[in-house]
Amino acid sequence: MTLSEIKAAARAEAFGRRKAAFAERSADDCRFLREVLEDHAGEPLAGYMPMRTEIDCLPAMAAHPGPVGVPVILGAGQALKFRQWHPGAEMVAGEFGALIPETGDWVEPRVLIVPLLAFDRRGFRLGYGGGFYDRTLEGLRGKGQVTAIGFAFAAQEMAEVPIEATDQPLDLIVTERGVLAPGR
What we know:
Layout: H1 3-23, H2 31-38, E1 45-46, H3 58-63, E2 68-72, E3 81-84, E4 91-93, E5 99-101, E6 106-107, E7 111-114, E8 118-119, E9 125-126, H4 132-143, E10 147-151, E11 172-175, E12 178-180
Parallel strand pairs: 1-2, 1-7, 7-10, 10-11
Antiparallel strand pairs: 2-3, 3-6, 4-5, 8-9, 11-12
């Protein structure tokens, strides 16, 4: 099998695990994420608008004391930009149906909450295959310190995510059960 085929099979399996975990979600799934973000109070944060069966990071984003942005896809092969968000912001459908603020300033995050399909204890994530977060993290890390936090259900862990040279590792992984620090 090619790496593309291996990743496609891993994505299919990961979607199933995430869907099952989503069915068991609770209102307090964000508690560890809120605790981690306390160490980054005031820093520009980027989160995401949860879609389908993604774990919901909105309570942690709403509680963050500092600018908060959500991703805007500018086009295939490009890094993400982040438009400022707040609870109650007027939202419109962006690429792939993800909601984005209709208007607002751009935010350059120092901390990113990264959605994913699967993760491993090395700190690698399996995304949707567009490479948007890998390009974004590479660019932001080239400018200075950035903390990438994968946020997922614990059931999304896999033994080893198939990776390639362009895949950017996560600094932390937060689940509804706790915090993992890859390589530590």
